[in-house]
Amino acid sequence: MSGRDFLIIDGDSLRCQDVVRASHRMTSVSLAPDAERAVVRANQVADELSRIRPVYGRTTGVGANRDAVVINSAAGDHDLRLLRSHAPGIGDQLDEVSVRAAMVVRLNQLAAAGSGIHPAFLHALEQALRTDAVPTVHDLGTIGTGDLTALAEIALTLTGHLPWASGHVEPIGLEPGDALAFMSSNAVTLARAVLVGEELRRLLDAAHLVTALSYCAMGGSAEAFAEQVHARRPHPGAVRSARTMRELLWHEGDLSPGRRIQDPFGLRAFCQVHGPALDSSEALTRVLEIEVNAAAENPLVDVAGGAVFHHGQFSTAYPALALDQLRAAVHHVAELSAARLADLVEPDFTGLTPFLTSGPPGSSGVMILEYIAHDALGMLRHSASPVTLGTSVISRGVEDHASFTPQAVRSARSTAANYRTVLSCELVAATRALRLAETAPRGRLLGEAFHGLLGKLPDLRADHQLGQEIEIAGGLLDDLIELMPSAE
């Protein structure tokens, strides 16, 4: 679907990686001609049907006002009232990357030609993405049944009723039925889920390299990652994780024994704990790639059958549950990282001084890293709590279920930030241990990664403030992924 410079929006084949690239302005978008023609026809069908039968949001109010018949002028005055009333502008302002990602997702969903919206909205979104015009969008007011507040703000910006945060696109007209057709989506939540899902995926990949460095510092045993072991219990994520560890640690095929008959769980059970997180990450990607290509607007305009269907496709139970599962899995992975950090400061495992000190007796070395890691782990534990155990009843009892997917996304963002901190603490300690032992990591790939770290992480062995090293290590986690073995 995407090339180096252009991303064709066709409503059918958008990938999570495409959303990420477009949100970071690494590609330009172009609406597929076939999709544009389908949108034009769907708009015509919606207009025709609204003249002969009630159509929610076009000839009626919304929510508990679903039975109220509205009179909508050609200027779309009812639609303008609807957008204004649903755009409170409350909460934190979303960053530009998230807003661009949301516009990409919404453009692609509209290109699936199920909303009945006027094609001018697609052209305006396409133009905004091409020229990097970004609306002001606020976070608060969505519970997983449609990003009504955020999308109302985007629609009001496209129609010239709200100012742009940056850039500018000529305002478009608002036709009858356009308001709900644009708002009836979870595009903002889905876009943010794509972005945080990608961050977590990268951190999970980088964790293999960090763990491999800890393995080398502690003289780990090869047996835990053996192909024979994982073939007997072949969960895909665990098998992939073990294969990655083998490629990192024994690129040349040398499987020499470790220092102990059995390592602590942080090494020995790494793949068994990491595997579910990898599988959960892939499951989230599969769910999101269905969602971002879905014509899920309520009501659905079916061009082929010349009909309109009222339904519950606005529910986002699938991504909510997938996000809950991923956050829980990452929490387990982060716990093992903290456990390896504890092992790295223990002389029985490294043969080095307590807390990896190199100063006079009583020096603290990297003692504080455990406190920082467990502070972050405590916050991660909180953010791992499932959001899908709650619901809400609103709009006079008419809307009596919510998935709280936006809250799951916010929790996932917290999870990613705190997991990065935990991993960074382990990376600082593992690098210091290898420096103190004057031990080169095993394997060509791991050796290259370690050589890169040596040039970027300061080698300060006397007691000092460790904050800068933790921050540097956090940034290096993304760089390490470029040296990862292929997942194929």
Notes on the protein architecture:
There is one protein chain. The chain has 18 helices and six strands. It has 488 residues and is mainly α. It folds into two domains: 180 residues, Fumarase C, Chain B, domain 1, CATH 1.10.275.10; 288 residues, Fumarase C, Chain A, domain 2, CATH 1.20.200.10. Strands 1-2 form a two-stranded parallel sheet. A two-stranded antiparallel ribbon has the order 3-4. Strands 5-6 form a two-stranded antiparallel sheet. The longest helix has 33 residues. It is elongated.
Low-confidence stretches: none
> How many domains in all?
2
Strands of the widest sheet, in order across it, are 1-2
Please give the CATH class of the largest domain: Mainly Alpha
Q: How is the main sheet built? A: 2 strands, parallel
Strand content: under 5%
Return Rg in Å.
Answer: 26 Å
User: What is the mean pLDDT?
Assistant: 92
How would the global form be characterised?
elongated
The H-level CATH homologous superfamily of the largest domain, spelled out, is Fumarase/aspartase (Central domain)
Contiguous helical run count: 18
> What is the CATH architecture descriptor of the largest domain?
Up-down Bundle
Percent range for helical residues? 40-55%
CATH topology call of the largest domain:
Fumarase C, Chain A, domain 2
- The structural class is mainly alpha
Q: How many strand units?
A: 6
What string, H for helix and E for strand, traces the elements in order?
EHEHHHHEHEHHHHHHEEHHHHHH
Distance between the terminal alpha carbons, to the nearest Å? 20 Å
InterPro entries: Aromatic_Lyase, Fumarase/histidase_N, L-Aspartase-like
GO molecular function: lyase activity
Protein name: Aromatic amino acid lyase
Keywords: Lyase
